[in-house]
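Subject: Protein record for review, amino acid sequence with backbone structure tokens
Concerning: The relation between a protein's sequence and the shape of its backbone.
How to read it: Take the token row as a discrete description of the fold.
Enclosed: The protein record, placed directly beneath this head.
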Amino acid sequence: MSEAGAARVVEFAIGGMTCAACSVRLEKVLNRQPGMEANVNLAAERARVRLLGVADEAAVVAAVAKAGFTAAVVDKQTRAREKAAKQAIYRREIRRFWIAVGLTLPLLGQMLFMLGEHSQHNELPRGLQLLLATPVQFWIGWRFYDGAWKSLRAGGANMDVLVALGTSMAWGFSAVVTLFGLAQHVYFEGGAAVITLVLLGKLLEARAKAHTSEAIESLIRLQPKTARVERAGQWVEMPVEMLMPGDVFMVRPGESVAVDGEVIDGDSSVNEAMLTGESMPIGKSAGAKVFAATANGQGALRCRATGVGEHTLLAGIIRLVGEAQGSKAPVQRLADRISAIFVPLVCAIALLTFAGWWWYSGLLAEALINAVAVLVIACPCALGLATPTAIMVGTGQGARAGILVKNAEALERAERITVLALDKTGTLTLGEPQLSEVVALGGSEDEVLRWAAALEQGSEHPLGRAILARYGAAELPIVADFTAHPGRGVSALVDGRQLRLGAPDWIGVADNETACRLQRAGKTVVALAEGETLLALLAIADALRPTSKQAVLRLRERGIRVVMLTGDNVSTAATIAAEAGIDEFRAGVLPADKAAVVAALKADGALVGMVGDGINDAPALAAADVSFAIGAGSDAAIEAADLTLIRSDLNGVADAIDLSAATLGKIRQNLFFAFIYNVAGIPLAALGLLNPVVAGAAMAMSSVSVVSNSLLLKRWRAKS
């Protein structure tokens, strides 16, 4: 981003945010500071701050600290520190959760007898109940008090407020009854169960976020750590970080390119699939551009550095992934939205109940019991289970069907996808070149294929592997005087014939009508010649996956607009799109352009999904509302995506959308079960017709209903 004058944008890692209200409040605080324009993202736990005039990083850190959070400038070490800190916090929360389970289970055993006439005979001693419940309430549950205070301070009311209020009233009333020996029922088990179960939901969310930075880390790992640099006529091995623009460096056969550069001399072919997604290697000679982390083929290249450090194409993609991940607006959970209205309403009803009964009966105990009954029936035990249980069962069923869900929010959104952008190579197609046509001009098809395979025997080039795979395991003739011509082809003596196999322009048949026809059909053409005589043309193409056409049809039947994205030329793109049954495509799309296309589709108000497999797809995957990675694809694509399809089958996208619809349906039903008891019970409790014992039982029944309903998702099966 370019800034006017001395303005600059700095990214900060923010700690301590627990809900959307936190991010909103922090953004307001920062934007009130002189010289600061801030955008705070809860999901990414980042703040991007535009600093103007005298404002600096220290001022931002101080303002964030004053608001009750922590801030650190994002640099190369930040991600490692964040990852270690998050892992430590997660391990600590896991330990606390299991301690809470151990303390709560004895209390929960009594809930089975809450409706019995002789329930007191089945109770644990009340002093023991107090000892078990108190650590759960105030140690394990402290995070809910902290979150509730921050939410209320920001002028909102989230689920933390409801948990803290309901459990505090249940514990407080029970503690008074226990300490003063009153003849009333106690509700220690209710408060402990709520805290433990809601904490489980929080841990599930934390696990879903655990790998948000790994997409960027996998990209960073691609770049070589050292390079061979020319110094005073000698080749010296030195760290990549020390290279400067203008330095001359060597890329030997099989090595990765260290930084962006321009070839000074040498001939080779470079596999740029990790950037472009296209499987065909690109010939490189003097004047050609090379890019960091691409894989050199069989020839050595001497290059001059043009882009180093943060100015390489790979670094640009890394920035795009980070920015796209940070730009994802967090989905405001339905439970929080309901709580914003539900919590104040319940508090008002409880207060009115207390005041009304005290005025009506003059009995403080009766007024307090009825008010507590309102709060207990409103306590969100089932609400804490409604989404996590459905997500747990849904993701389990998805895993059995080859659909790995990393982001639960994306699973909830997938059913609403209106536009799906598809990468071509490796997603719609197999991603591996195949010999699709042999045009024999100087011999039989078997004979020219035999000669071509002989020339390519032992080759690791994708085109050579395609020819050898078509020829099979039959015996090959002896080859003599073999010569490789990097970036052009090979020549050798085969069966007494001096043969050449390579690019049509090298062979001298670039204008051949048949070769042009095959190229217009989107195929790579390799020519076989003896001297100046053309013997054969071999057409090699990346074939469509057998299931792609059916998968596209399923998606279109759901009313989804399918758009293909590819770095190929228009003719190749049109051929593949027509074969797959796709009407709309974008050809010649570079890595940065893919993310821009997704952003443009989103700008039209569509909910956009993206399917890809290459590193070049990572920014677009991160920018999409819902992203899918083909399982055979790169680690970066898989880490950037919300869902991974293990089977490398596009049908998995349609299955994932079906699973999303089934899971979201269960979540809606669960929320109904979570609240129906409250809606029916609150008026009864306020009128004194529902004592706290029955209110606690109703709360337990809502939890049982939610869990049982979620388990019905186990009947879901993938259609493919």
User: Anything to note?
Assistant: Residues 1-5, 114-118, 208-213, 323-332 have pLDDT under 50 and may be disordered.
